[in-house]
Write a structure and sequence with these properties.
Blueprint (H helix, E strand, L loop, with lengths): L3 E2 L22 H14 L14 H31 L4 H21 L1 H8 L2 H8 L8 H8 L8 H9 L1 H4 L1 H13 L4 E3 L5 E3 L2 H7 L5 H17 L1 H21 L5 H8 L4 H12 L3 H14 L4 E2 L17 H11 L5 H11 L5 E2 L11 E3 L7 E3 L7 H23 L9 H20 L5 H37 L6 H16 L3 E2 L21 H18 L3 H12 L6 H8 L7 H24 L7
Parallel strand pairs: 1-3, 4-8, 5-7
Antiparallel strand pairs: 2-3, 6-7
């Protein structure tokens, strides 16, 4: 009988392969003690209610208390969510996460009067408050709040909205549990006949198998699981979209996108420029699909053919230790301090939870709080080059957080999501430059260039397609269109046809992909990946082609946290995202890579992989 490759359980994972959370809380008892203390302290909000209009000193006192509570809550929440993501089936970790989520909702309700009371202060009086020395430190923070006057409700209404926060997360949490814990993705036999359990962690690796039968089976088995649950998934996604519309309208926004962009003060033209520019630049993408079909020697190209490496008998293998050293070498242009801190994090300080285990959250992310170092969740695979790039990507997030927290006070340490993907993608750009600069073989060069193309395809084109889907679905909800499974699949299928063109045969099951994207539960997040890669490559070119001044501009950007609006932070670093030029430059780079691949494969004079 063939052996079955099963995932290991959490308790069997070696400690050195896991993140070290003891710096946050050494034990569950310590976490519980802080939880109990914070639950009691939070009642202190009542003492500030009704006082904010009295004086700048009263405003300052309330804000200081609010920041103290928020900082403690961040530590509790960070620890609980990291523990929960280690193993979604662990009941004790689930319980702590639910407890802190509930406390978070209660604190939101308790503090909900702050914005309303600040808005109720007459503008002339508030302007005088803002000139007071007591509020000098808080001025930008208060200006961010006050620009929401039209979208802030009465204290009673704010309390009602805050009390609904925990309930409003039900769709997202149910999706996470279904997708990560309950969903069984089936088994396939690989090219050697070994039976493999398909997981979120190994799915992309299976699609890179040279055996077309194996990747076809993986694709069909994977999506058959979603077909079996498509009505549940569609109901959860529709519920999340309707929830967002409810909160948007409650705050006097016409649509969810308007509210999402307002929160970061991002002009709508940034979003529209992205979609318009990418839409007008699909020709290089179609050319790439044609090249891939020719290189693979296929009569027809399908989606499960779009990730397999374009080199015959070229197997990527790099363990975690070598990946870490490679990344550190690639980041040499960022200076010794940057690399020294990151080296400690990737190795001795155990920032990284490295490998997949049973029940572990899929994907990857960087997390942490002001009072911890960064933490990186990975599902690292030695046979997949994307794992090395993912580690470099999350390291970029982590170093952005490290510098921001070291350079800024708690109030201004957190950067917004709009700039969050810049530092991470910047690192990927430097990694590609480094790998190509090591005088690779002709085959390795094809491998890296095609991987870089696929990164652009997945981040610039794919995320823009996701952004179009979100805009379409949220507009439909605003127009009272029922968000049925058929409607969602049809909308997604049309976008797939646009973005893949006539050169790729699309399996009907691919329309189910819209049900498996976690970011759709965080509305209007995905477009920031596409703007992020555009800004990142523009900054990378600026740093690599510049001198000390350009490098300092970038490092100062990393240290800026949330001290300005994100568009202003990028402008200070040398990039104007209100212009279409950064996106146009990204598309031009993609097109150049496709041309380079065409030249490289023309020189090889043969098919890269078997049919």
């Amino acid at each position: 009988m063939d052996a079955v490759v099963e995932l290991t359980t959490r308790e069997k994972v070696p400690a050195e392969h896991t993140w070290d959370l003891s710096g946050l809380y050494p034990s569950n008892a310590a976490w519980q003690a802080d939880f109990d203390s914070l639950e009691s302290e939070a009642s202190g909000y009542a003492g500030y209610q009704g006082t904010l209009g009295r004086s700048p000193a009263a405003v300052k006192a309330c804000l200081e208390f609010d920041l103290k509570i928020s900082r403690k809550l961040d530590a509790l929440y960070t620890h609980a969510h990291l523990r929960n993501d280690e193993d979604k089936t662990n009941a004790a970790n689930q319980e702590n996460f639910e407890k802190v989520s509930g406390l978070h909702a209660r604190i939101l309700k308790a503090r909900s009067f702050i914005a309303s009371e600040l808005m109720a202060i007459p503008e002339e009086r508030m302007d005088a408050f803002l000139q007071d020395k007591d509020l000098e430190f808080y001025r930008f923070h208060l200006e961010q709040i006050l620009r929401s006057r039209r979208h802030t409700l009465s204290p009673k209404e704010e309390a009602l909205l805050a009390s609904a926060t925990e309930m409003a997360k039900n769709a997202q949490e149910a999706f996470a549990m279904l997708d990560n814990a309950d969903l069984k993705l089936g088994r396939i036999k690989d090219e050697t006949g070994q039976e493999i359990v398909v997981t979120h962690g190994n799915f992309q690796s299976l699609l890179q198998k040279h055996d077309r039968r194996a990747r076809k089976d993986a694709f069909e088995t994977f999506y058959s699981a979603y077909a079996d649950h498509q009505y549940t998934y569609s109901s959860l996604l529709a519920g999340s979209v309707k929830k967002d519309l409810y909160f948007s309208r409650a705050r006097n926004f016409d649509q969810t996108r308007e509210r999402a962009l307002f929160q970061e003060n991002v002009p709508a033209e940034v979003y529209d420029n992205l979609v318009r520019t990418v839409r007008a630049s699909l020709a290089p993408l179609y050319k790439y699909f044609g090249l891939r079909k020719r290189i693979l020697g296929l009569d027809e190209l399908r989606v499960y053919d779009c990730n397999v490496p374009l080199i015959k008998d070229f197997n990527w293998r790099m363990d975690y230790a070598e990946a870490s050293e490679t990344i550190l070498s690639a980041l040499a242009p960022l200076g010794g301090d940057y690399r020294d801190v990151l080296r400690q994090g990737l190795t001795r300080e155990r920032w990284v939870d490295r490998y997949e285990n049973k029940g572990k959250r899929s994907g990857a992310y960087s997390s942490g709080c002001y009072d911890s170092h960064p933490f990186i969740l990975m599902n690292f695979r030695e046979d997949n080059i994307n794992s090395v790039y993912t580690l470099a990507h999350e390291a970029g997030h982590s170093m952005h957080s490290h510098y921001s927290r070291k350079s800024r006070p708690y109030l201004y340490a957190d950067y917004t999501i709009f700039v969050a993907e810049v530092a991470s993608t910047f690192n990927e750009a430097l990694l590609t430059r480094y790998l190509l600069g090591r005088d690779p073989s002709h085959e390795m060069k094809i491998y890296i260039v095609s991987r870089e193309i696929d990164n652009f395809r997945g981040t610039l084109y794919r995320q823009t397609m996701f952004a179009e889907f979100e805009r379409l679905v949220h507009q439909a909800a605003a127009g009272n269109r029922p968000l049925t499974a058929d409607f969602l699949k049809d909308a997604y299928r049309k976008l797939l046809r646009d973005y893949f063109g006539d050169g790729v045969v699309l399996d009907e099951s691919l329309a189910l992909e819209c049900f498996r994207i976690p970011h759709f539960y965080s509305s209007f997040y995905v477009y920031k990946y596409a703007t992020g890669i555009s800004a990142a490559y523009a900054l990378a070119d600026r740093v690599l082609n510049g001198g000390e001044s350009e490098l300092n501009d970038y490092l100062n950007f990393l240290k800026s946290g949330g001290s300005k609006y994100p568009i202003d932070l990028l402008r200070d670093a040398g990039i104007d995202m209100t212009s279409p030029r950064p996106v146009e430059a990204a598309v031009k780079k993609f097109s150049g890579l496709v041309d380079e691949l065409e030249a490289l494969t023309a020189l090889s004079g043969q098919h890269a992989v078997p049919r």
